[in-house]
Write a structure and sequence with these properties.
This protein is α+β, with helices and mostly antiparallel strands. Among the domains are: 33 residues; 97 residues, Beta Barrel (Elongation Factor Tu (Ef-tu), domain 3); 42 residues. Helix content is 53%, strand content 17%. The protein has a 7-stranded mixed beta sheet, with no helix packed on it. Strands 8-9 form a two-stranded antiparallel sheet. A hairpin with a 4-residue loop joins strand 3 and strand 4.
Length: 317
């Protein structure tokens, strides 16, 4: 089957058109043969272009699709595509950064696995990385300000030194040198005095140092002895003893045990008080009527009996 020249021409024209469409989309960051996912983010200003890359750890994984100004928020809204093989969560941020000193800007996806997975069409939070040039500019600005302050201080110091050296009086600089010389002589005299004092008290100083050495050794021995003493166990035993005493006092306060009942039981107290009273009455009655309790008879006479009130009971024969 022969294909006419017109059909061949039509096929060639259509192929050219398709190739042109593909090239135009590719130059605009679109690849018709790739399936990408589209996401959105916003910045306070626009520093991107549609040719700006979308990267992950320096690797290109997408393209800028559209950059528009959002009249509602006053921010720049950016839509970009990412290879569908890349997965990340909604907590992922998009960072705007410079690709180099002389280069343009790009987007970096700071992948995060925390949170729910992101889906195409989601809005991602953004941040802007401060570039190296801005950092250097601020640093040099601070250095310049500090240098200006330092130079001003040095200038003031030199002016003060000039005022000190320049003296219109007759004494002038000679007086200053003379006073400095006298000061050095005074220091020299003090030094001689100190040396003489040390020479005269050399033996005493040696004795003091020896005594100090002995004291230091004694303190070392005491320290070793204290180290051998198990203070922690002693404190622990003391703490246990205190806890036992506390528990005992709590038991007594709650009326537990013999001592607790003795101190807290009012009935027992009343019984003891009644018994003491009866004992006192008994002793008093024994003093007044000893014959009731002690009987002595040579001929075997029966002792008299008494009732509870102390009255004599007559025997019935």
């Amino acid at each position: 089957m022969k294909i006419s020249r017109e059909v061949k021409t039509a096929i060639l024209v259509l192929s050219g058109i398709l190739l042109m469409v593909f090239l135009i989309n590719y130059l605009n960051g679109k690849n018709l043969f790739e399936t990408d996912d589209t996401y959105y983010t916003e910045f306070d200003y626009n520093a991107l272009s549609k040719s700006s890359p979308v990267t992950v750890k320096g690797n290109s994984v997408g393209k800028i699709q559209e950059i528009i100004y959002n009249f509602d928020t006053g921010k720049t809204r950016v839509s970009f595509t990412v290879d569908d093989q890349l997965s990340f969560s909604k907590e992922t941020k998009v960072k705007l950064y410079k690709t180099g000193l002389m280069g343009g800007n790009a987007l970096e996806i700071m992948v995060s696995e925390q949170g729910a997975p992101a889906k195409p069409g989601d809005f991602l939070a953004s941040e802007v990385e401060e570039d190296l040039v801005s950092n250097l500019t601020e640093t040099f600005s601070d250095v310049s300000n500090n240098l200006d302050t330092t130079l001003s201080s040095a200038d003031s110091l030199l002016l003060n030194l000039n005022r000190l050296v320049i003296d219109d009086t007759e004494a002038g600089l000679k007086n200053a040198i003379k006073e400095l010389n006298e000061t050095m002589k005074s220091f020299k005299a003090v030094s001689y005095s100190v040396n003489n004092l040390i020479k005269k008290n050399d033996e005493k100083l040696s004795s003091v140092l020896t005594n100090f050495d002995s004291i230091t050794q004694g303190l070392a021995v005491i320290t070793n002895d204290l180290k051998d003493v198990q203070l922690s166990k002693t404190v622990e035993k003391l703490d246990n003893t205190i806890n036992t005493v506390n528990n005992l006092m709590v038991s007594i306060e709650n009326g537990e045990g013999s001592v607790g009942k003795l101190l807290k039981d009012e009935g027992l107290y009343q019984n003891l008080e009644g018994a003491a009273l009866q004992m006192e009455q008994l002793l008093e009655d024994m003093k007044l009527n000893p014959k009731r309790y002690v009987h002595f008879s040579i001929f075997g006479k029966k002792p008299k009996r008494y009732d509870a009130d102390g009255n004599e009971i007559e025997d019935k024969d």
